[in-house]
Design a protein that fits this description.
Elements: E1 8-12, H1 19-26, E2 38-39, E3 42-43, H2 49-55, E4 57-60, H3 72-78, H4 88-98, H5 100-104, H6 115-127, E5 133-137, H7 145-160, E6 164-168, H8 172-178, E7 181-186, E8 189-195, H9 196-201, H10 203-209
Parallel strand pairs: 1-6, 1-7, 4-5, 5-6
Antiparallel strand pairs: 2-3, 7-8
Length: 212
């Protein structure tokens, strides 16, 4: 599987297919039993997760996994914990521009936010690492349709601003509407790949993932 610079790539599959495992392996939380992981031709196998963050990969995990007892500002600051440069304040402003609701809730305890606000916070926290590759795991999970639309419009904005995205999403129609390319995974094996339009038109994909 390959994700090229500047792309949004969707990874589709049923529950248990290996989508989350793939993201966790890329971000260093799991160790692959075989094969090679590379970022811009540099090997990632065996590299600790915090070093992978420094190299330019940030992970928004399934279920958000925010720090419930910390404020919105503290959660965002935690996203920059590997950084010592002078651009942190500017990136905080960028995140708050992308997610104005977080600006309104900046001093609020994160555990009291709505589900949509928590998802915004999880994405914003990852962006504070200034990643070149953003791993998004099920960003629409448990959210109302109108909030899902907002989240995915922001995903487009993040990509337009130069961040490459690998997107895992059960809502295949939404994922393919924002992605340029995609892969279908079944029990840990890539079984299909193509442009987003090709996958959306594929009869097997339409039957299995688009409810047609």
């Amino acid at each position: 599987m390959q994700v090229r610079a500047g792309e949004i790539v969707a990874l589709l599959g049923n529950n248990g297919a290996g989508k989350t495992t793939t993201l966790r392996t890329i971000s260093g939380l799991l160790v692959p039993s075989r094969g090679a992981l590379t970022l811009e031709e540099q090997p990632l196998n065996g590299v600790p997760a915090h070093v992978i963050v420094r190299r330019g990969i940030a992970h928004v995990p399934e279920g958000r996994r925010i720090f419930n007892r910390l404020t919105v500002r503290e959660n965002l600051t935690m996203g920059a914990y590997t950084r010592t440069d002078s651009g942190i304040a500017g990136d905080l402003e960028r995140v708050l521009t992308l997610f104005p609701r977080l600006q309104e809730r900046i001093t609020q305890v994160a555990g009291t936010l709505s589900g949509g606000e928590q998802q915004m916070l999880a994405i914003g926290r990852a962006l504070m690492a200034r990643p070149r590759l953003l791993l998004l795991d099920e960003p629409s999970m448990g959210l109302a349709p109108v909030v899902v639309e907002q989240i995915f419009e922001t995903v487009r904005d993040i990509n337009r601003q130069g961040t490459t995205i690998l997107l895992v999403e059960q809502n295949a129609a939404m994922a393919l509407s924002v992605a340029q390319r995609g892969y279908v995974i079944e029990t840990g094996i890539i079984v299909l790949t193509g442009t987003a339009a090709e996958l959306a038109d594929n009869p097997d994909v339409r039957r299995a993932y688009l409810g047609e």
